[in-house]
Design brief:
Blueprint: E1 2-9, E2 18-23, H1 31-41, E3 46-50, E4 58-63, E5 68-69, H2 73-84, E6 91-96, E7 99-108, E8 111-118, E9 123-126, H3 130-137, E10 147-150, E11 154-159, H4 163-168, H5 173-176, E12 183-189, E13 194-200, E14 205-208, H6 212-224, E15 234-238, E16 246-255, E17 258-266, E18 268-276
Parallel strand pairs: 2-3, 4-6, 11-12, 13-15
Antiparallel strand pairs: 1-2, 1-18, 3-4, 4-5, 6-7, 7-8, 8-17, 9-10, 10-11, 12-13, 13-14, 15-16, 16-17
Amino acid sequence: MYRYTVADVFTSTPLQGNPVAVFTDASEISEQRMQRIARELNLSETTFVLPPRGDADVRVRIFTPVNELPFAGHPTLGTAFVLGAEMKGNILRMETAAGLIPFAFERNGDRIVRATMRQPIPTWKQYEKQMILMSALGVESPSLPVVAYRNGPRHVYVGLGSVTELEAVQPDLRALATLPDMAAICFADADTHWRMRMFSPAYGVAEDAATGSAAGPLAIHLIRHGRLCYGERVEIRQGVEMGRLSTMYATVHGDGDTVSSVEVSGAAVVIARGELLL
């Protein structure tokens, strides 16, 4: 029997945001069974908490329904909320396959109201299959250069001229699935914030309600193209078209083309607890 907790992430409202299932004691679960459990639950990600191997408080493995990810944003933040509720400190150091991810908690009494993670600093380059991607998305003219950023998963950013254009995107998922190891991130300026959508059949997710690992690189992308400044916090909303509003905040520090830190924050709320009878 394996116990798990479900949290809605990047929201403080139940049944909004992006859900993640967290198995808080996965020491007896094999890698093969982790993948099968993630496929059974069929959420965009499921996490498994293990004893740390290095200088961390916990180690976390992250699975989509079809593969394991070295790092992802909403599942690690949701896991941090679940674990932080059972601890008294405000710092949690999480070991992932992409490195150590520190979390800082803000509390109202004993309740965590916000967590901030320091994400891996991504690498980036122009995306090599832009024409195929544009055709699959049905986008004719992106508003900014199409660039791939990798901080574990690989996100390819496609800027659109308006929120109306963003809402109208209806990708050919079969065509997108031929592009391996990537998530298509479409985004648009919404005046007071930025709106984002993520499509990734290659990662087993047709559309994602909140992609925390894409929030930090989006802020870098905006800075590199003159739409944001270092040290300026940007609000990013996702999941609107899915009826699951998610709100993320990203802040990037650096100078020129050198990024020194990437921080992403948000809320989460526990909505369910259960047991797998295995």
